Fold this protein.
Amino acid sequence: MPGKLTGSSPTTTAKMKCGAVIVAAGRGERLKNTTPKAFIPLRSKPLCQYSLDAFLSYPKITDIVLVIPEEKLSSFSDPKFKVVAGGASRQESVFKGLSALECDTAWVFVHDAARPLLTADLLDRLWESAKNGKNCIAAWPISDTVKLAQNTTIAKTLDRQNLWGAQTPQVFLTSVLKEAYAKAKKDNFTGTDEASLVERLGASVELVVGDPWNLKITTPQDLKLAELILENKL
Ligand code: CTP
Ligand code: MG
């Protein structure tokens, strides 16, 4: 069955390597800033540094690949992680990051640098699920009522009880995620997260309770919110 780790004992699991791909190569067009989003200072630290610090201090992770805009390559190097240039889409950037991982990396965490507030507790929850051979993503139940639209008219109201907002990190067996990327390429499919690619293999992906504070910085308002959270004002 795709997406399942079979025949692993706790001892072999403990020895298997775990990598992280942090994608930070977007332009941040909705943020309307001339600096690429991942390099915008948040309380004087570049946005992508928050995610790097979270993964660098998470003991299970042995290999980190940071994917950044090509023009930033010369100004951002560190022996503690690899840096590679991103692609035209998020999906391409993740693919480039995956290709730079050590080949013996059994699991991979994929994370958007646009979510700087991830915590070690969230990484723990994901790892608890992943180490049992599951593909899993951080997600949070939707609180709004969600409308499916046809232009500006409601076509349908979706059942909120079954709706979750997908977050990152998302964790996969590296072999499964690479297979999902190969299939997406063959089918010319573009998804907005890794789970959507893995689902197309027929593999199951578990929802792990995410964190409402793990917000995605998209607009200037989000940046302000993150500042307030970090200043403990919220
Ligand atoms: N990303 C990437 N390469 C791309 C596009 C996006 O690595 N070609 C990364 C972003 O840096 C971000 C994550 O994917 O960490 C999620 O993307 P998003 O929030 O959409 O960021 P941007 O694409 O930078 O923002 P925008 O869509 O507003 O331009
Ligand atoms: Mg984008």
